[in-house]
Amino acid sequence: LVPDIRELIEVDDVMEDDSLRFGPNGGLVFCMEYFANNFNWLEESLGHVEDDYILFDCPGQIELYTHLPVMKQLVEQLQQWEFRVCGVFLVDSQFMVESFKFISGILAALSAMISLEIPQINIMTKMDLLSKKAKKEIEKYLDPDMYSMIEDSTNILKSKMFKKLTKSICGLIDDYGMVRFLPFDRSDEESMNIVLQHIDFTIQYGEDLEFKEPKEYEEDKSALVDEYFQDHEDE
C-alpha cells in the first residue's frame, strides 16, 4: 500500500481548527512540520522496502525548499534509512517560454538544489501542450546559451543595476553548468524513457544489474534535443 500523508494529518483539518486559525499556506507549513516530527509514522508506513522504487509527490510551494528545513529533514531521514535519494524538480514548460521567466525557473530549481544538497534532475513538463510555435521557441531553453539570453533580457531592462545583476546570474549559471532541463512529453514514450533513465542513473537503481548510462551520456545532448523537436515538427 502507498502511504498517504492525509492518514497522518490534513490541511483542511488544520485550517478548520479554531485554535490554530491558519490559512492555506500556514496550514501547509504546520502539516509539514507535524510530519517532520512524526517520521516514525512514515517508517512504519513504508515497511520493508528493499529494492523498491518509491516516489514522493511533494507540495509545490517553493518556500518548503528555500527557507524552511522540513524537506531537508525528510531527505536526511531517508538517507539515514539508507535510501538513495534524487530530487526531480518540475517546471511547467508553458511558463518557461520567455527569458525572464526561464531565468526565474532556473533560480527556483537552483535554490531547491542548494537547500536539499542531493542530486537533482530538472524537468520541463507538459511539452505535449505547447503549440508548434512555442515548442520551437522553447528549444533554446533546454540547452541554453546564457550569454545570448543576457542580451535578450537586458535590452528590456532600463536599470543599470538590474542589468548588472542579470548578467551576473546568467554568467554564474553558464560558467558552472548548474542547471539544465530535460523535456517531458507524456505522449512521447521516448521522452519519458529518457527522463526515467536519468533518474535511474542518478540513484544507481538496479546497480546489481547490467550497467547502462542514460542517453545523454551516450550521445551529444544537443543532438538529443534536436531529435525530439524534429520528431514533432509536423504536429
UniProtKB/TrEMBL annotation:
Entry keywords, A to Z: GTP-binding, Hydrolase, Nucleotide-binding
Taxonomic superkingdom: Eukaryota
An MF annotation (GO) of this entry: GTPase activity
InterPro entries: Gpn, Gpn3, P-loop_NTPase
Nucleotide-binding in keyword set: yes
Keyword Hydrolase: yes
Subunit structure and binding partners: Binds to RNA polymerase II (RNAPII).
General function of this protein: Small GTPase required for proper localization of RNA polymerase II (RNAPII). May act at an RNAP assembly step prior to nuclear import.
Family of the protein in this entry: Belongs to the GPN-loop GTPase family.
Protein name in UniProt: GPN-loop GTPase 3
Organism name: Casuarius casuarius (Southern cassowary)
